[in-house]
Amino acid sequence: MARDVIDMTPLQSRDELVAWFAAGEKPKDRFRIGTEHEKFPFTIARHEPLPYEGPRGIRALLEGMQMILGWEPIMEAGHIIGLVDVTKGGAISLEPGGQFELSGAPEETIHQTCSELQAHLAQLREVAAPLGIGFLGLGMAPTWTRTEMAVMPKGRYRIMTSYMPKVGRLGLDMMYRTCTVQTNLDFSSEADMVKKLRVSLALQPIATALFANSPFTEGKPNGFLSFRSEIWRDTDADRSGMLPWAFEPGMGYERWVDYALDVPMYFVKRGDRYIDVAGRSFRDLLDGKLAELPGERPTLSDWANHISTIFPEVRLKRYLEMRGSDAVPWRSLPSLPAFWVGLLYDDANLDAAWEIVKGWTAEERQMLRDEVPRLGFAATIAGRSVLALAREALALARAGLARRNRQDWMGRDETRYLAPLEQIAERGRTPAEELLDKFHGAWGGSVDPVFNEYAY
């Protein structure tokens, strides 16, 4: 999230929270595609993580990008922590360990998201190359220890860093040593939201396997294909997971509001000050009973910022976020929106995908979620392998994109962006397994070549 929401409209009731979600509904002709992707910056000379300060640090990188783009800087306590394009809505932000994120503008086609990505990377290289900085697209930092990671000067991250060890063993690894790619998609009604949420939750482990790309920790194989995904299993159960209740009767905006109200808060922001309320209840704030803010009721800012601290495999905001995938090399990044747009923005495919998953039980869905980080395509559900499901889902996505028929200037439709995933499914080996093959073969038991072969 590039910056905290600023909207001091007071909230008085639960109904207003429900209405906030409902306001995200859009007619289908206004559906857009948002892509967010993170990457690890590193020193080309020594393959080390970047500090924030210094002539070759994160701050210098952001200031250089500001000069090229002319975007508005996002400042906190005198530190530049991001940039925002006030015209189109895109932004650059920092994750806790300095992971560099582009939050793409809402685009009409995957062609546009791909062009946005290519422009971003070209601009980034223009600034980074003279500074001796490279970027790595993996789901987990392959060699660095947690203590080697820089700490970004953001108030919300200080609060999260203090709270995470209280609710899981791996929350700090999630914050400081992982990278992801996300796709954000729209819904037209409450019923449309519910169906898309259920389908994408059930199929999220399929995307996790297709993008599994984090098999190394501190220079050695870690025993997983997507250790980033495994990390989320021991981060904070109150705000993550597969949301089994979303498949129960009565699911809708109200049920999500009740869930969000029960997720412990991290902070409340007043002016430039972050007030640590970690573990406290938003229900108490809604009732004016929060001890740290006696008598105060929440604002829309408080609600939107709280929603941004909830991390299930699919997250509802005023759109749906697909959150289950590792970061990958840049050529594969447009494949994630292609996969989900082809499945969810085509009514026939949404129905077909629901037919695939509707008979799965909550226990089966959870077991699949638990096994995919380790087994990848070999995991099974209801007698079917993830590889078979991935091939079926990709075939549906291709058909959906073909029916969309959004063509680029060369007359090519969006199906071409599925090619990297189709090649993975044809080989039947995840990106992580191919990395492990190189580690045990051509790389001679070293992870260091990844900084050359997989750098942006």
Automatic annotation (TrEMBL):
Keyword field contains Cell cycle: no
- Report which reactions are catalysed by this protein: L-cysteine + L-glutamate + ATP = gamma-L-glutamyl-L-cysteine + ADP + phosphate + H(+)
Q: Which Pfam families match?
A: GCS2
Alphabetically sorted, this entry's keywords are:
ATP-binding, Disulfide bond, Glutathione biosynthesis, Ligase, Nucleotide-binding, Transit peptide
Q: Which GO terms describe its molecular function?
A: glutamate-cysteine ligase activity
EC number(s): the record gives 6.3.2.2
User: What InterPro entries has UniProt attached to this entry?
Assistant: GCL_bact_plant, GCS2, Gln_synth/guanido_kin_cat_dom, Glut_cys_lig_pln_type
Q: Which domain of life is it from?
A: Bacteria
Keyword DNA-binding among record annotations:
no
| Pathway the protein contributes to | Sulfur metabolism; glutathione biosynthesis; glutathione from L-cysteine and L-glutamate: step 1/2
Question: Which Gene3D superfamilies does the entry link to?
Answer: 3.30.590.20
- Family in the record: Belongs to the glutamate--cysteine ligase type 2 family. EgtA subfamily. Belongs to the carboxylate-amine ligase family. Glutamate--cysteine ligase type 2 subfamily.
* Assembly and binders: Homodimer or monomer when oxidized or reduced, respectively.
Q: What does this protein do?
A: Catalyzes the synthesis of gamma-glutamylcysteine (gamma-GC).
**Protein name as catalogued:** Glutamate--cysteine ligase
Source lineage: Bacteria, Pseudomonadati, Pseudomonadota, Alphaproteobacteria, Hyphomicrobiales
